Amino acid sequence: MYRGVRHLMNNMRMRNKLLFSYVLIVMIPVLVVGGCVTFYLRQQALDSAIAQTVNNVEKIKSQTANLLRVPTDISNGLMFDKRLKEMANRRYSGMVELMNAYHQYKDFNEYVQQYREIATIRFYSYNPTLVNNLEFIPVDSGIERQEWFKTALKGTAINWFYIQDKEDNPVNRLSLVRQIPFPEYHTKGVLMIALSQTELNHMLSKEQFETLIADRNGIVVAATNPQSVGQTLAGLHLGFDVQRAGKGIYEAKINGKPSNIIVDELLPTSSVSGFTIISVFSTEHIVQGANRVSLIGALCVLAVLIMALILITIISWLITKRLQRLSYELDKVASGDFHVVSSVEGRDEIGDLSRRFNYMVTSIRQLMTQVYEASEQNNRLELAQKDIKLKMMASQINPHFLFNALESIRMKAHLNGEAEIATTVRLLGKLMRRNLEIGSGTTTVRQELDMVRSYLQIQQFRFGNRLIYEVNLEEHAEDISIPPLIIQPLVENAVIHGLENKEEPVTVKVDITMEQRELHIKVADDGIGMEAEQLACLLARIRGTDEPEGSSIGLRNVHQRLMLMYGERYGLQIESVLQAGTAVYFSIPKEEDSNV
Predict the structure, then answer these.
(1) d(CA 409, CA 351)
(2) Mean of the pLDDT values across residues 482-486?
C-alpha cells in the first residue's frame, strides 16, 4: 500500500500535489475543528445556563426557607399563647362581651403589621359563641369538608397549602395550617397564617428564567409570571409529571421547543409538607448567541479557505511555470548546449527558506509573549478570586441564631414582663454591632472572646440551666492577632448540636493556650456526641471540594479559611465519642510581629 501511494504521488503533477496537500492538510482539519468549536460553544452556553439556573434555584430555596421561617416562628409562639387559649375557649354571654374581647385581642393584627411576609392570620374554632370577624371564625360544615382543614386536624405538625376557597373574604394565598390543641378545655382549633403574595412574587421577579414554586398538591404558589399563581403544574403543560420525577435536571419539549427543566425540593423546618421549585429555560434561546457566533465564524473560515484556494492555485501555477522553464533549460543542457544561461526569476530556495524561518521565529516569539501575558493575567485572576472567596467566607454568619434570640426575648417580655431582658438585649446589640463591624482584616483573641462570651450569655438566657459554659485563656495569648469569626462558629456549633437530643445540662468549654509559638484553640462540649460513621461523614463534608448543604457549612468555612491563610496543616481537627461529647480544635502560627 505504501508503495502504491508513493508511486501515485511521484506520478502526480506538482500543481496537483499542492492542491491535494492543501485540501488534506488545511481544508479538512479546519472544517473539522470549526465543527468541534461550534459544538463546544453551544455546549458551553448550555452548561453555563444550567449551572446558573441551579445556583438560582439554590438561592430561591434559601430565600423561601427564610421567608417561611417567619410564620413558623409565629405559629410556634401561638401554640402556647395563654391569651389565644382564653379567647378561643371562653363562652361569651352576649355580643357586647364578644365585641369587647375582639377589641382587646390585637395580637393577630400586630403580627400582620410587624411582618411584611404575613398577609392575614385566622383561627378556626369550634366555640359556638364566636362570630366571624375575619380573624376568629366558627367552624361550619363547609370548612370541615376542606382538605386543608381535615389534614390539620390529624396532628399538630405544620402543613402548607395554597388555599382556594369561596368564602366572602377568600384567602387565595400560600398558608401555614396547623392544629392548636387546648388540653385543659378538651378542645382544639386550626390556625391559618396566610403569606403575602407580593413578597413571594417579588422574590422571583428578578429571575432570568421562568421559575415556579408549587405546593404538595401541584398548585403554583409563586412564579416569575404572577398569572401562573393558583394554576396547577399539570395545567402549565411542562411535558412530564414534575412532582413524580423528583429532584434533578430534565429535558423536555415545552410548547414545541426543546427546553431544560431544573427541579429541586424544599421541606421547611417542623413541616410535614414541602414544596417543589422548578426553573425552565429554552435551549434554543440559550444557544442562540453561540449559534450566531458559530455561523459568523463558519462564514469567515469559508471565505478564508476560498481565498487560500485561489492563492494556492496562483502560487502552484507560478511554481510549475518556473519549473517548466528550468526543465526546458535543463533539456537544452542535456542536448549539449553548454552556453545556456538560466533565466528563471526569483531568489534561490535557501534564501527564501531563511526569510520564512525568520518570519516563523518572530511569529512564535510573539505567540509566546501573548501566552505568557495571558498566563500572568490568569494567575492574578486566581489570586483575586481566592481573596474574594476568603472575604466572603469571613463575612458569613448564621442569622438563625439572631432570629431565635430575638424571638426568645420577645416571647419572654410578652409572657412574663421580666426586667433581665434588658441585659440580654444589650448583649445581643453588642454582638450584632461587632458582627457588622467585622471586615476582612484581623482581630485579637480578646476581641473574639468578647463576642463568644456575649453569644454564650445570650444562649444561656434562652436555655437556662441546660447550658453551662467555661472560657479559659492564657493571659499572654489575649493580644495575639487571629482571623475574625474563627472561634464563634465553633462555639455556635457546639451549643446547637450539644443541646440537641439531650435533656441534661451541657457544658461548653473554650480553651486557648500557647505552645511552641503556636496558638492552640479548642472548643468542646459534653453533649450527645457522634458515632464514628457520622464523624467520618462530617470530616468528608468540610474537607471535600463540593460546597456542603446544611449545618456543616460553618465548620467548612472555618476550615477553608485556616488552610487558605496558614496552609493545609492548620485545618480543623474533630474528635467525638457517642454519649460523651465532641471536641473541635485547631492551631494558628504566631506572627513575628504579634504582641504577646
Answers:
(1) 91
(2) 88
Cβ atoms of 326 and 342 within 8 Å: the answer is yes
R_g of the chain, CA atoms, integer Å: 37
Give the residue-averaged pLDDT of 253-265.
79
Name 193's bridge partners: 121, 176
β-bridge mates for residue 73, sequence order: none
Beta strand pairing call for 467-473 and 506-515: parallel
Neighbouring-strand partners of residue 194: 120, 175
Residues 6+ apart with CB under 8 A from 56: 207, 208, 209, 211, 279
Question: Up-side HSE of residue 227: CA atoms within 13 Å toward CB?
Answer: 2
* Local confidence band at 69 (pLDDT 50, 70, 90 cut-offs): very high
Q: How far apart are CA 47 and CA 455, in angstroms?
A: 43
What predicted TM-score, i.e. pTM, was given to this entire model?
Answer: 0.46
- For the beta sheet containing 220-223, the strands, ordered from the edge strand earlier in sequence to the opposite edge, are 220-223, 210-214, 275-282, 257-266, 248-254
CA angle 249, 253, 256 (to 5 degrees): 160
Q: Which three cell numbers stand for residue 122?
A: 385566622
Closest CA to 228 of 286, 283, 278, 168: 278
DSSP 527: S
